[in-house]
Design brief:
Layout (H helix, E strand, L loop, with lengths): L2 H25 L4 H6 L6 H12 L2 H14 L5 H23 L5 H9 L7 H28 L3 H50 L2 H8 L12 H17 L1 H7 L5 H32 L5 H4 L3 H9 L5 H38 L13 H25 L3 H25 L5 H25 L11 H20 L5 H11 L15
Helix pairs in contact: 1-8, 1-15, 3-8, 3-11, 3-12, 3-15, 4-12, 4-14, 4-15, 5-10, 5-12, 6-17, 7-8, 7-15, 7-16, 7-17, 8-12, 8-15, 8-16, 9-12, 10-17, 11-15, 14-15, 15-16, 17-18, 17-19, 18-19
Length: 507
């Protein structure tokens, strides 16, 4: 039987299963909590799987193997930085976040500071999650182009539609089941199939060591500056991303959030090491791949089609699609949650209108409204992925502002009691302006297009300015209203009811 036919058949069966998960999730979705956070009922197994799935996307899977091919062992640092972010979030903050019984990062800021000004964070978070969804949508389409021979736009449209259907119909319950299957497929594909087959084809570690330069076994071969960048961008970004926090909200208990997440973080680190080893093995087994002309991301597909037996290659390609779809679906529901819960009320308030997005009297109507937001923003993400050739640049801008502008206010609220709402708002404004301004200046003066956008300095300057302003303004302004802090302490202690989601704000 033709290998390509078998590979296509396996991927098609996987895609059909994704649609089936949507209908399964629909049967478990009765209210807002079910749709957005899986009823806050995930135990250790489901929680660990869905957390690992959402953070290990195409960059971690396909990109990680490509980095291993190009740099050797040090290609693992991208995914290690992601795993470190999951570990830190889980061990330091996840149990507190889970106890709050909220839906968004912006709601945490409002609850902690009692200020309308912090709601501007929702706009930044919406841009970040929407661009993350568009990036992932465009990424898995590259697999479809190679596998089915489709035009890029058609591949994006069909792949995006599949994610859109199961996410819209069943919400977080469908996404959780899909993530669980994707987690299993990725684990088998990377650890059980690709790693042993590739190492065997390359003659084992000793055979590889004898045929590559010693720099490929140096842990800092990719460059210290690059490693630092990975930790600054990805580790810090994961601490405050809505797509990650929304998974924390699904945990059944604080203990599940902490230790289930820590397990996922350790898994990510092992995943990164495995991907780098696969890429390193492919460097020896498939030395003629022209990564300069084709890009390093082709290495994954080359390994799947040239080093693995018939059928197994299809499972590995399905693992790549799984990685990208899990990130896309997670970002999509995060974008819809932020848009409806944070951005819509904030924008409406400027026109003197008060919008309550929780229809607790009619849960069915509330779920329908959430579905419409997922559907609408999903279509927007697909269009962005189709018409924009470099959505990575837009995602980088959103990521930089997310970290440079919002990190200090969010983490400051979690760890420093003296932090105030005025300080949080000022630090977010200053950090975002400095980050974006530095990026613009560097881009204007850059000799190569996009060098300014991809530079590290914007985040560094933004973080520094944000931290200085946050501390200074906190010390110069009156402490947060005692009533607000009392409510915050009660929520952190786990004293929130499920129907008590959004705090009352003061101007």
């Amino acid at each position: 039987m033709d290998a390509s036919f078998v590979n296509i058949a396996i991927v098609v069966v996987y895609l059909a299963a994704m649609l089936a998960f949507g209908w399964w999730g629909k049967s478990r979705t009765k209210n807002n909590s079910d749709f957005l956070v899986a009823g806050r009922r995930l135990g250790p197994f489901l929680y660990t799987g869905t957390m690992a799935a959402v953070v290990l996307g195409g960059a971690s899977t396909v990109g990680g193997v490509g980095l291993g091919y190009k740099f050797g062992i040090s290609g693992m640092w991208l995914v290690v930085a992601i795993g470190a972010g999951v570990l830190l979030l889980s061990l330091l903050f996840a149990s507190t976040i889970q106890k709050l019984k909220i839906y968004t990062v912006s709601q945490m800021l409002s609850l902690r500071y009692g200020s309308h000004a912090t709601q501007t964070s929702g706009i930044v978070m919406l841009a970040y999650t929407l661009m993350l969804c568009a990036t992932s949508t465009g990424a898995y389409a590259t697999i479809f182009v190679v596998l089915f021979g489709w035009d890029r736009a058609l591949a994006i449209a069909i792949g995006g539609a599949i994610v859109l259907v199961y996410s819209t119909i069943g919400g977080m319950w469908s996404i959780t089941l899909a993530d669980q299957v994707q987690f299993v497929i990725k684990t088998v594909g990377i650890f059980v199939l690709m790693l042993p087959f590739t190492l065997n084809a390359a003659g084992g570690l000793e055979g590889i060591r004898a045929r590559v330069d010693a720099s490929f076994f140096q842990v800092d071969g990719i460059g210290l500056q690059t490693i630092i960048t990975y930790f600054v961008v990805y580790t810090l970004g994961l601490l405050i991303g809505q797509d990650i926090w929304q998974r924390v909200f699904t945990a059944k208990t604080p203990t599940v959030a902490r230790w289930g997440g820590a397990t996922a973080g350790i898994y990510c680190i092992l995943y990164g090491a495995a991907g780098a080893l696969i890429g390193l093995g492919a460097r020896v087994a498939l030395p003629d791949i022209d990564v300069k002309a084709l890009g390093k991301d082709v290495v994954y597909a080359e390994v799947a089609t040239n080093l693995l037996p018939i059928g197994i290659g299809g499972l590995v390609l399905a693992a790549a699609v799984a990685a990208m779809m899990s990130t896309a679906s997670g970002a999509l529901i995060a974008a819809a949650t932020v848009a409806r819960a944070d951005v819509l009320p904030f924008v409406a308030s400027w026109f003197g209108k008060n919008i309550n997005t929780d229809d607790t009297d009619n849960p069915e109507h509330d779920v329908r409204a959430n579905r419409m937001w997922v559907l609408g923003l999903g279509v927007v993400a697909i269009v962005i992925a189709i018409v924009t050739k470099d959505v990575v640049a837009a995602l980088t801008i959103a990521y930089d502002i997310l970290v440079g502008g919002l990190l200090v206010a969010i983490l400051g609220g979690l760890i420093w009691k003296r932090g105030t709402g005025a300080a949080a708002a000022a630090s977010m404004a200053v950090g975002s302006v400095i980050t974006l301004g530095t990026m613009i200046i560097l881009e204007i003066n850059a000799e190569v297009p996009l060098d300014g956008i991809y530079a590290n300095e914007p985040i560094y300057y933004g973080l520094l300015a944000s931290a200085v302003v946050y501390i200074a303004v906190s010390l110069l302004t009156a402490p947060t209203d005692p009533a607000v802090m009392a409510n915050w302490r009660r929520r952190v202690a786990g004293g929130a009811a499920e129907d008590e989601q959004v705090p009352v704000l003061t101007h």
